[in-house]
Amino acid sequence: MRQATVDLINRYYAAFNAGDMPAFLGMLTEDVAHDVNQGGRETGKRAFAAFMQRMNRSYKEEIVDITVMTNEAGSRAAAEFTVLGKYLVTDEGLPEASGQTYRLPAGAFFEIRGGQVARVTNYYNLPDWIAQVGG
Q1: Tell me: the pLDDT tens digits for 21-36?
Q2: Exposed, middle or buried, 108 (CB in 10 Å: 0-12/13-18/19+)?
Q3: pLDDT over 90 percentage in the chain
Q4: Number of compact structural domains in the chain
């Protein structure tokens, strides 16, 4: 089970990097819980898809240097990685976008159910990101 979970998380980020939203969203349970960095919890695949649509409008990101860790049962996982990004369009409440690039250490925690992602909780340092884009 552990290797299946590692493979799932690696496929999840590969689909993200490829911009393949159908494959990316296809790895989520219908009732997926998404804990937004320094924000609230959104529930459901539809809410996650809407979040990704907003993100993909404002940011072009690639996840690199990924390390995946799991518990024995493969029901929980964590990933540590680096986000390489470009800020394309101003996101509400954040600094003006002008194509700034950023490099941000980040992490995520996952709950796995039935071979799919049932929860993802993302963490990164928002003040670091704001400083990098000139806010």
Answers
A1: 999 999 999 999 999 9
A2: buried
A3: 93
A4: 1
